[in-house]
Design goal:
The complex is a heterodimer of chains A (226) and B (250).
Chain A: H1 5-38, H2 44-56, H3 59-70, H4 75-82, H5 92-118, H6 121-128, H7 133-144, H8 146-161, H9 165-171, H10 181-190, H11 194-225
Chain B: H1 2-21, E1 24-30, H2 34-48, E2 51-57, H3 59-67, E3 74-76, H4 81-88, E4 98-103, E5 105-109, H5 120-124, E6 130-133, H6 139-150, H7 154-157, E7 161-164, H8 167-175, E8 181-185, H9 186-189, E9 190-191, E10 194-195, E11 199-202, E12 211-217, H10 225-235, H11 237-245
Parallel strand pairs in B: 1-2, 1-3, 6-7, 6-8
Antiparallel strand pairs in B: 3-12, 4-12, 5-8, 5-11, 9-10
Classes of the chains: A mainly alpha (226), B alpha/beta (250).
Chain lengths: 226, 250
Protein backbone atom coordinates (compact mmCIF):
# COMPACT_ATOMS: atom_id res chain seq x y z
CA UNK A 1 0.00 0.00 0.00
CA UNK A 2 1.74 3.17 -1.12
CA UNK A 3 -0.30 5.44 1.16
CA UNK A 4 0.23 5.28 4.92
CA UNK A 5 -2.53 5.64 7.50
CA UNK A 6 -1.56 9.25 8.13
CA UNK A 7 -1.79 9.94 4.38
CA UNK A 8 -5.30 8.48 4.26
CA UNK A 9 -6.26 10.48 7.34
CA UNK A 10 -4.96 13.60 5.64
CA UNK A 11 -7.02 12.85 2.50
CA UNK A 12 -10.20 12.30 4.53
CA UNK A 13 -9.59 15.45 6.53
CA UNK A 14 -9.01 17.47 3.37
CA UNK A 15 -12.25 16.22 1.80
CA UNK A 16 -14.10 17.01 5.03
CA UNK A 17 -12.64 20.51 5.13
CA UNK A 18 -13.41 21.21 1.49
CA UNK A 19 -16.99 19.91 1.72
CA UNK A 20 -17.85 21.85 4.86
CA UNK A 21 -16.21 25.00 3.53
CA UNK A 22 -18.12 24.72 0.25
CA UNK A 23 -21.51 24.29 1.94
CA UNK A 24 -20.87 27.21 4.30
CA UNK A 25 -19.53 29.38 1.51
CA UNK A 26 -22.59 28.80 -0.68
CA UNK A 27 -24.76 29.92 2.24
CA UNK A 28 -22.59 32.95 3.05
CA UNK A 29 -21.70 33.82 -0.53
CA UNK A 30 -25.22 33.84 -1.99
CA UNK A 31 -26.53 36.92 -0.16
CA UNK A 32 -23.24 38.77 -0.77
CA UNK A 33 -23.37 37.93 -4.49
CA UNK A 34 -27.07 38.85 -4.72
CA UNK A 35 -26.40 42.19 -3.10
CA UNK A 36 -23.37 42.85 -5.32
CA UNK A 37 -25.39 41.95 -8.43
CA UNK A 38 -28.33 44.20 -7.54
CA UNK A 39 -27.01 47.18 -5.65
CA UNK A 40 -26.22 50.65 -6.97
CA UNK A 41 -24.67 51.63 -3.65
CA UNK A 42 -21.28 53.32 -3.59
CA UNK A 43 -20.20 50.41 -1.38
CA UNK A 44 -20.47 47.99 -4.28
CA UNK A 45 -16.94 48.51 -5.54
CA UNK A 46 -15.18 48.50 -2.14
CA UNK A 47 -17.05 45.35 -1.06
CA UNK A 48 -16.30 43.70 -4.40
CA UNK A 49 -12.63 44.56 -3.94
CA UNK A 50 -12.54 43.11 -0.41
CA UNK A 51 -14.17 39.89 -1.62
CA UNK A 52 -11.57 39.60 -4.38
CA UNK A 53 -8.57 40.25 -2.07
CA UNK A 54 -7.73 36.56 -1.51
CA UNK A 55 -7.23 36.23 -5.28
CA UNK A 56 -4.20 38.48 -5.15
CA UNK A 57 -2.95 38.23 -1.57
CA UNK A 58 -0.37 35.57 -0.78
CA UNK A 59 -1.94 32.94 1.52
CA UNK A 60 0.78 33.75 4.04
CA UNK A 61 -0.76 37.20 4.51
CA UNK A 62 -4.19 35.73 5.23
CA UNK A 63 -2.59 33.07 7.41
CA UNK A 64 -0.53 35.57 9.34
CA UNK A 65 -3.46 37.85 10.11
CA UNK A 66 -5.62 34.88 11.06
CA UNK A 67 -2.86 33.61 13.36
CA UNK A 68 -2.59 36.97 15.08
CA UNK A 69 -6.30 37.84 15.19
CA UNK A 70 -7.53 34.38 16.25
CA UNK A 71 -4.82 34.06 18.91
CA UNK A 72 -5.48 34.77 22.58
CA UNK A 73 -4.32 38.39 22.23
CA UNK A 74 -6.13 39.08 18.97
CA UNK A 75 -9.51 40.72 18.51
CA UNK A 76 -11.25 37.61 17.23
CA UNK A 77 -9.49 35.39 19.77
CA UNK A 78 -10.64 37.56 22.67
CA UNK A 79 -14.18 37.50 21.32
CA UNK A 80 -14.26 33.69 21.04
CA UNK A 81 -12.67 33.34 24.48
CA UNK A 82 -15.22 35.64 26.08
CA UNK A 83 -17.93 33.48 24.49
CA UNK A 84 -16.32 30.45 26.15
CA UNK A 85 -15.27 28.91 22.82
CA UNK A 86 -11.52 29.12 23.41
CA UNK A 87 -9.24 30.05 20.54
CA UNK A 88 -9.51 28.63 17.03
CA UNK A 89 -5.87 28.41 16.00
CA UNK A 90 -4.67 24.80 15.66
CA UNK A 91 -8.26 23.56 15.32
CA UNK A 92 -10.35 22.20 12.48
CA UNK A 93 -12.82 25.03 13.08
CA UNK A 94 -9.96 27.48 12.59
CA UNK A 95 -9.12 25.88 9.26
CA UNK A 96 -12.76 26.13 8.15
CA UNK A 97 -12.80 29.84 9.01
CA UNK A 98 -9.50 30.36 7.20
CA UNK A 99 -10.76 28.46 4.15
CA UNK A 100 -13.92 30.54 4.02
CA UNK A 101 -11.86 33.71 3.70
CA UNK A 102 -9.44 32.07 1.31
CA UNK A 103 -12.07 30.67 -1.09
CA UNK A 104 -14.66 33.45 -0.80
CA UNK A 105 -14.06 35.03 -4.24
CA UNK A 106 -14.31 31.63 -5.91
CA UNK A 107 -17.92 31.44 -4.76
CA UNK A 108 -19.04 35.05 -4.81
CA UNK A 109 -17.76 35.94 -8.28
CA UNK A 110 -19.39 33.10 -10.28
CA UNK A 111 -22.63 33.63 -8.35
CA UNK A 112 -22.56 37.38 -8.91
CA UNK A 113 -22.02 36.81 -12.65
CA UNK A 114 -24.89 34.34 -12.74
CA UNK A 115 -27.24 36.72 -10.89
CA UNK A 116 -26.27 39.62 -13.12
CA UNK A 117 -26.91 37.51 -16.22
CA UNK A 118 -30.48 36.88 -15.09
CA UNK A 119 -31.18 40.60 -15.25
CA UNK A 120 -34.23 42.38 -13.90
CA UNK A 121 -36.78 41.04 -16.41
CA UNK A 122 -37.62 37.67 -14.81
CA UNK A 123 -37.70 39.28 -11.35
CA UNK A 124 -40.11 41.96 -12.46
CA UNK A 125 -42.25 39.34 -14.14
CA UNK A 126 -42.31 37.37 -10.89
CA UNK A 127 -43.22 40.52 -8.97
CA UNK A 128 -46.18 41.27 -11.26
CA UNK A 129 -47.37 37.73 -10.49
CA UNK A 130 -47.21 38.70 -6.79
CA UNK A 131 -44.42 36.33 -5.88
CA UNK A 132 -42.83 37.36 -2.59
CA UNK A 133 -39.02 37.81 -2.52
CA UNK A 134 -38.38 34.31 -1.06
CA UNK A 135 -40.64 32.76 -3.64
CA UNK A 136 -38.88 34.68 -6.39
CA UNK A 137 -35.51 33.56 -5.10
CA UNK A 138 -36.35 29.87 -4.91
CA UNK A 139 -38.57 29.61 -8.00
CA UNK A 140 -36.85 32.04 -10.36
CA UNK A 141 -33.34 33.05 -9.31
CA UNK A 142 -32.09 29.70 -8.02
CA UNK A 143 -33.02 27.63 -11.11
CA UNK A 144 -31.75 30.27 -13.51
CA UNK A 145 -28.46 30.64 -11.61
CA UNK A 146 -27.89 26.90 -11.33
CA UNK A 147 -24.80 26.83 -13.57
CA UNK A 148 -23.31 29.59 -11.44
CA UNK A 149 -23.91 27.56 -8.28
CA UNK A 150 -22.31 24.48 -9.81
CA UNK A 151 -19.25 26.46 -10.90
CA UNK A 152 -19.00 28.13 -7.48
CA UNK A 153 -19.26 24.81 -5.64
CA UNK A 154 -16.64 23.09 -7.81
CA UNK A 155 -14.19 25.99 -7.62
CA UNK A 156 -14.60 26.43 -3.87
CA UNK A 157 -14.11 22.72 -3.23
CA UNK A 158 -11.06 22.45 -5.48
CA UNK A 159 -9.48 25.65 -4.22
CA UNK A 160 -9.89 24.56 -0.59
CA UNK A 161 -8.35 21.16 -1.36
CA UNK A 162 -5.37 23.03 -2.80
CA UNK A 163 -4.99 25.33 0.20
CA UNK A 164 -1.52 25.30 1.75
CA UNK A 165 -0.20 28.60 3.04
CA UNK A 166 -3.10 29.42 5.32
CA UNK A 167 -3.17 25.93 6.84
CA UNK A 168 0.57 26.01 7.33
CA UNK A 169 0.36 29.29 9.22
CA UNK A 170 -2.52 28.45 11.59
CA UNK A 171 -2.68 24.64 11.58
CA UNK A 172 0.20 23.33 13.65
CA UNK A 173 0.44 20.06 11.64
CA UNK A 174 -1.83 18.03 13.96
CA UNK A 175 -2.73 14.60 12.52
CA UNK A 176 -6.48 14.19 12.08
CA UNK A 177 -7.18 17.83 12.91
CA UNK A 178 -5.13 20.16 10.78
CA UNK A 179 -2.76 17.91 8.81
CA UNK A 180 -4.27 18.21 5.33
CA UNK A 181 -2.90 16.70 2.12
CA UNK A 182 -0.92 19.73 0.97
CA UNK A 183 0.84 19.95 4.35
CA UNK A 184 1.42 16.19 4.36
CA UNK A 185 3.13 16.50 0.96
CA UNK A 186 5.34 19.23 2.38
CA UNK A 187 6.16 16.98 5.36
CA UNK A 188 7.14 14.13 3.04
CA UNK A 189 9.36 16.37 0.93
CA UNK A 190 10.98 17.89 4.01
CA UNK A 191 11.73 14.48 5.47
CA UNK A 192 12.95 13.18 2.12
CA UNK A 193 10.15 10.64 1.63
CA UNK A 194 9.93 11.43 -2.03
CA UNK A 195 8.04 8.24 -2.97
CA UNK A 196 5.27 9.07 -0.51
CA UNK A 197 5.26 12.67 -1.69
CA UNK A 198 4.87 11.48 -5.29
CA UNK A 199 1.79 9.39 -4.51
CA UNK A 200 0.00 12.27 -2.83
CA UNK A 201 1.23 14.95 -5.21
CA UNK A 202 0.38 12.85 -8.27
CA UNK A 203 -3.05 12.25 -6.79
CA UNK A 204 -3.53 16.00 -6.41
CA UNK A 205 -2.57 16.60 -10.04
CA UNK A 206 -5.04 13.96 -11.23
CA UNK A 207 -7.77 15.28 -8.96
CA UNK A 208 -7.30 18.89 -10.03
CA UNK A 209 -7.26 17.92 -13.70
CA UNK A 210 -10.51 15.97 -13.33
CA UNK A 211 -12.16 18.86 -11.50
CA UNK A 212 -11.24 21.35 -14.18
CA UNK A 213 -12.18 18.93 -16.93
CA UNK A 214 -15.61 18.49 -15.33
CA UNK A 215 -15.95 22.21 -15.00
CA UNK A 216 -15.07 22.94 -18.63
CA UNK A 217 -17.12 20.07 -20.08
CA UNK A 218 -20.11 21.23 -18.06
CA UNK A 219 -19.59 24.76 -19.29
CA UNK A 220 -19.52 23.82 -22.99
CA UNK A 221 -22.61 21.60 -22.72
CA UNK A 222 -24.40 24.47 -20.95
CA UNK A 223 -23.36 26.74 -23.80
CA UNK A 224 -24.83 24.28 -26.31
CA UNK A 225 -28.06 24.21 -24.33
CA UNK A 226 -28.34 27.91 -24.90
CA UNK B 1 19.29 52.84 -33.21
CA UNK B 2 20.67 49.33 -33.44
CA UNK B 3 24.09 50.66 -32.58
CA UNK B 4 22.75 52.34 -29.45
CA UNK B 5 21.09 49.10 -28.48
CA UNK B 6 24.34 47.20 -29.01
CA UNK B 7 26.22 49.73 -26.94
CA UNK B 8 23.77 49.59 -24.08
CA UNK B 9 23.80 45.80 -24.15
CA UNK B 10 27.56 45.89 -24.00
CA UNK B 11 27.43 48.33 -21.11
CA UNK B 12 24.93 46.09 -19.34
CA UNK B 13 27.20 43.11 -19.90
CA UNK B 14 30.11 44.99 -18.38
CA UNK B 15 28.04 45.90 -15.34
CA UNK B 16 27.12 42.25 -14.78
CA UNK B 17 30.70 41.15 -15.34
CA UNK B 18 31.75 43.70 -12.72
CA UNK B 19 29.34 42.14 -10.28
CA UNK B 20 30.64 38.68 -10.92
CA UNK B 21 34.14 39.85 -10.00
CA UNK B 22 33.07 40.96 -6.51
CA UNK B 23 32.69 37.47 -5.07
CA UNK B 24 29.39 36.53 -3.61
CA UNK B 25 28.66 33.59 -1.35
CA UNK B 26 25.16 32.14 -1.29
CA UNK B 27 24.50 30.47 2.04
CA UNK B 28 21.63 28.17 2.93
CA UNK B 29 21.10 28.63 6.66
CA UNK B 30 19.10 26.46 9.06
CA UNK B 31 16.36 28.60 10.58
CA UNK B 32 17.78 28.55 14.12
CA UNK B 33 20.93 30.33 12.95
CA UNK B 34 19.02 33.23 11.39
CA UNK B 35 19.85 35.87 13.99
CA UNK B 36 23.55 34.94 14.35
CA UNK B 37 24.23 34.93 10.59
CA UNK B 38 22.52 38.29 10.30
CA UNK B 39 24.88 39.60 12.96
CA UNK B 40 27.89 37.92 11.35
CA UNK B 41 27.18 38.94 7.74
CA UNK B 42 28.02 42.67 7.92
CA UNK B 43 31.23 42.00 9.85
CA UNK B 44 32.23 39.30 7.37
CA UNK B 45 31.49 41.56 4.41
CA UNK B 46 33.49 44.37 5.96
CA UNK B 47 36.44 42.16 6.84
CA UNK B 48 36.70 40.32 3.51
CA UNK B 49 35.00 42.53 0.90
CA UNK B 50 32.85 39.57 -0.21
CA UNK B 51 29.10 39.65 -0.28
CA UNK B 52 26.96 37.21 1.71
CA UNK B 53 23.46 36.26 0.59
CA UNK B 54 21.57 34.06 3.07
CA UNK B 55 18.47 31.90 2.53
CA UNK B 56 16.67 30.39 5.52
CA UNK B 57 14.70 27.18 5.91
CA UNK B 58 14.34 23.88 7.70
CA UNK B 59 17.34 21.59 7.30
CA UNK B 60 15.33 18.89 5.50
CA UNK B 61 13.86 21.43 3.14
CA UNK B 62 17.28 22.88 2.31
CA UNK B 63 18.59 19.36 1.71
CA UNK B 64 15.81 18.77 -0.82
CA UNK B 65 16.65 22.05 -2.53
CA UNK B 66 20.35 21.24 -2.72
CA UNK B 67 19.65 17.78 -4.15
CA UNK B 68 17.57 19.48 -6.82
CA UNK B 69 20.20 21.94 -7.91
CA UNK B 70 19.68 24.94 -5.65
CA UNK B 71 22.52 27.41 -6.24
CA UNK B 72 24.06 27.45 -2.74
CA UNK B 73 27.77 27.64 -2.04
CA UNK B 74 27.70 26.95 1.68
CA UNK B 75 25.20 25.13 3.87
CA UNK B 76 24.91 25.80 7.60
CA UNK B 77 22.84 22.87 8.83
CA UNK B 78 20.99 22.45 12.12
CA UNK B 79 22.41 18.96 12.53
CA UNK B 80 25.44 16.88 11.63
CA UNK B 81 23.66 14.03 9.85
CA UNK B 82 22.37 16.00 6.87
CA UNK B 83 25.80 17.39 5.95
CA UNK B 84 27.23 13.88 6.47
CA UNK B 85 24.61 12.54 4.08
CA UNK B 86 25.48 15.17 1.51
CA UNK B 87 29.15 14.26 1.94
CA UNK B 88 28.51 10.56 1.37
CA UNK B 89 26.46 11.43 -1.69
CA UNK B 90 29.34 13.45 -3.12
CA UNK B 91 27.60 16.80 -3.03
CA UNK B 92 30.19 18.75 -1.03
CA UNK B 93 33.73 19.99 -1.49
CA UNK B 94 35.78 17.11 -0.01
CA UNK B 95 36.94 17.67 3.55
CA UNK B 96 34.94 20.85 4.05
CA UNK B 97 32.62 19.54 6.77
CA UNK B 98 33.08 21.03 10.24
CA UNK B 99 31.03 21.86 13.35
CA UNK B 100 30.35 25.58 13.53
CA UNK B 101 28.11 25.60 16.60
CA UNK B 102 26.46 23.35 19.16
CA UNK B 103 22.86 24.30 19.71
CA UNK B 104 20.97 24.62 22.98
CA UNK B 105 17.30 23.93 23.49
CA UNK B 106 15.09 26.16 25.60
CA UNK B 107 11.50 25.94 26.78
CA UNK B 108 10.17 29.43 26.22
CA UNK B 109 7.02 31.46 26.84
CA UNK B 110 6.23 34.97 25.63
CA UNK B 111 4.60 35.57 29.02
CA UNK B 112 7.23 36.92 31.44
CA UNK B 113 5.74 35.05 34.40
CA UNK B 114 4.89 31.72 32.82
CA UNK B 115 8.20 29.93 33.37
CA UNK B 116 10.44 30.28 36.41
CA UNK B 117 13.66 28.82 35.05
CA UNK B 118 12.52 25.25 35.77
CA UNK B 119 10.29 22.64 34.17
CA UNK B 120 7.53 23.21 36.75
CA UNK B 121 4.97 24.72 34.36
CA UNK B 122 5.66 22.00 31.80
CA UNK B 123 5.02 19.27 34.38
CA UNK B 124 1.95 21.05 35.76
CA UNK B 125 0.41 20.81 32.30
CA UNK B 126 -1.96 23.77 32.70
CA UNK B 127 -1.53 24.85 29.08
CA UNK B 128 -3.53 24.27 25.94
CA UNK B 129 -0.74 24.19 23.38
CA UNK B 130 2.93 23.25 23.51
CA UNK B 131 4.78 24.24 20.34
CA UNK B 132 7.68 22.25 18.90
CA UNK B 133 9.38 22.10 15.51
CA UNK B 134 8.49 19.12 13.31
CA UNK B 135 10.70 16.41 14.90
CA UNK B 136 11.10 14.58 11.59
CA UNK B 137 12.49 17.62 9.78
CA UNK B 138 14.07 19.83 12.43
CA UNK B 139 16.78 18.72 14.89
CA UNK B 140 15.46 21.05 17.62
CA UNK B 141 12.08 19.34 17.28
CA UNK B 142 13.73 15.96 17.72
CA UNK B 143 15.60 17.22 20.79
CA UNK B 144 12.28 18.48 22.21
CA UNK B 145 10.72 15.02 21.91
CA UNK B 146 13.75 13.51 23.64
CA UNK B 147 13.27 15.90 26.57
CA UNK B 148 9.57 15.08 26.81
CA UNK B 149 10.44 11.37 26.78
CA UNK B 150 13.00 11.83 29.51
CA UNK B 151 10.48 13.69 31.67
CA UNK B 152 7.89 10.99 30.99
CA UNK B 153 5.51 13.60 29.62
CA UNK B 154 5.23 12.41 26.02
CA UNK B 155 1.77 10.88 26.44
CA UNK B 156 0.48 13.62 28.70
CA UNK B 157 1.26 16.42 26.24
CA UNK B 158 0.56 14.50 23.03
CA UNK B 159 -2.85 16.07 22.45
CA UNK B 160 -1.45 19.53 23.16
CA UNK B 161 1.46 19.45 20.75
CA UNK B 162 1.44 21.79 17.80
CA UNK B 163 4.19 21.59 15.22
CA UNK B 164 5.90 24.36 13.32
CA UNK B 165 7.44 23.29 10.03
CA UNK B 166 10.73 24.72 11.22
CA UNK B 167 12.04 26.26 14.41
CA UNK B 168 11.08 29.77 13.27
CA UNK B 169 7.45 28.77 13.02
CA UNK B 170 7.57 26.95 16.37
CA UNK B 171 8.82 30.23 17.86
CA UNK B 172 6.14 32.21 16.01
CA UNK B 173 3.34 30.13 17.54
CA UNK B 174 4.66 31.02 21.00
CA UNK B 175 5.50 34.66 20.34
CA UNK B 176 1.98 35.34 19.00
CA UNK B 177 0.54 33.75 22.15
CA UNK B 178 -1.22 30.98 20.25
CA UNK B 179 0.81 28.43 22.20
CA UNK B 180 1.52 29.27 25.85
CA UNK B 181 4.97 27.73 25.63
CA UNK B 182 7.23 25.88 23.26
CA UNK B 183 10.63 24.31 22.72
CA UNK B 184 12.72 26.64 20.58
CA UNK B 185 16.39 27.25 19.89
CA UNK B 186 18.09 29.25 22.61
CA UNK B 187 19.55 31.47 19.87
CA UNK B 188 16.06 32.72 19.03
CA UNK B 189 15.40 34.22 22.46
CA UNK B 190 18.91 34.83 23.76
CA UNK B 191 21.01 37.91 23.32
CA UNK B 192 24.20 39.02 25.02
CA UNK B 193 24.24 36.32 27.64
CA UNK B 194 20.60 36.28 28.76
CA UNK B 195 17.07 35.46 27.68
CA UNK B 196 15.93 38.72 26.13
CA UNK B 197 12.15 38.43 26.36
CA UNK B 198 9.40 36.36 27.96
CA UNK B 199 10.38 33.61 30.38
CA UNK B 200 12.31 30.40 29.88
CA UNK B 201 13.74 27.13 31.10
CA UNK B 202 17.11 26.42 29.53
CA UNK B 203 17.02 22.65 29.17
CA UNK B 204 20.05 20.89 30.71
CA UNK B 205 22.40 19.45 28.06
CA UNK B 206 22.13 15.88 29.31
CA UNK B 207 18.43 15.66 28.51
CA UNK B 208 18.87 15.52 24.74
CA UNK B 209 21.47 14.38 22.22
CA UNK B 210 23.92 17.19 21.44
CA UNK B 211 22.70 19.36 18.56
CA UNK B 212 25.95 19.44 16.64
CA UNK B 213 25.48 21.87 13.78
CA UNK B 214 27.76 21.20 10.84
CA UNK B 215 28.62 23.38 7.89
CA UNK B 216 29.84 22.31 4.47
CA UNK B 217 31.03 23.95 1.28
CA UNK B 218 28.83 22.54 -1.44
CA UNK B 219 30.17 21.36 -4.79
CA UNK B 220 28.85 24.49 -6.41
CA UNK B 221 30.95 26.67 -4.07
CA UNK B 222 34.12 24.56 -4.25
CA UNK B 223 35.94 27.11 -6.40
CA UNK B 224 34.35 30.21 -4.92
CA UNK B 225 36.90 32.19 -2.88
CA UNK B 226 34.06 33.85 -0.97
CA UNK B 227 32.83 30.43 0.22
CA UNK B 228 36.27 29.52 1.52
CA UNK B 229 36.56 32.94 3.15
CA UNK B 230 33.22 32.51 4.91
CA UNK B 231 34.21 29.13 6.31
CA UNK B 232 37.52 30.59 7.54
CA UNK B 233 35.63 33.47 9.09
CA UNK B 234 33.16 31.16 10.85
CA UNK B 235 36.09 29.27 12.39
CA UNK B 236 37.70 32.51 13.58
CA UNK B 237 37.49 34.29 16.93
CA UNK B 238 35.17 37.15 15.89
CA UNK B 239 32.49 34.78 14.64
CA UNK B 240 32.96 32.59 17.71
CA UNK B 241 32.22 35.55 19.94
CA UNK B 242 28.98 36.30 18.11
CA UNK B 243 27.94 32.64 17.99
CA UNK B 244 28.49 32.25 21.74
CA UNK B 245 26.59 35.45 22.47
CA UNK B 246 23.49 33.75 21.05
CA UNK B 247 23.79 30.87 23.50
CA UNK B 248 25.54 28.31 21.31
CA UNK B 249 28.48 26.30 22.55
CA UNK B 250 31.58 25.65 20.50
Amino acid sequence: MPLSKSDLDAILLTLELASLTTVLLLIIGTPIALWLARTDSWLKRPVGAVVALPLVLPPTVIGFYLLVSMGPNGFFGQLTQSLGLGTFTFTFTGLVIGSIFYSLPFVVQPLQNAFEAIGRGPLEAAATLRANPWDTFFSVVLPLARPGFITAAILSFAHTVGEFGVVLMIGGNIPGKTQVVSVQIYNHVETMNYAQAHWLAGGMVAFSFLVLLTLYSGRSSRMRAL
Amino acid sequence: MIKTLQRSLLALGLVFAGHALADEVKVAVAANFTAPIQAIAPAFEKATGHKLVASFGATGQIYAQIKNGAPFDVFLSADDSTPAKLESEGDIAPGSRFTYAIGSLVLWSADTDYLDGTDKALKAGQFKHLSIANPKAAPYGLAATQVLDKLGLSDAVKSKLVEGQNITQAHQFVSTGNAELGFVALSQVYKDGKVSSGSAWIVPDDMYDPIKQDAVILKQGANNPAAAALVEYLKGPEAAKVIKSFGYKL
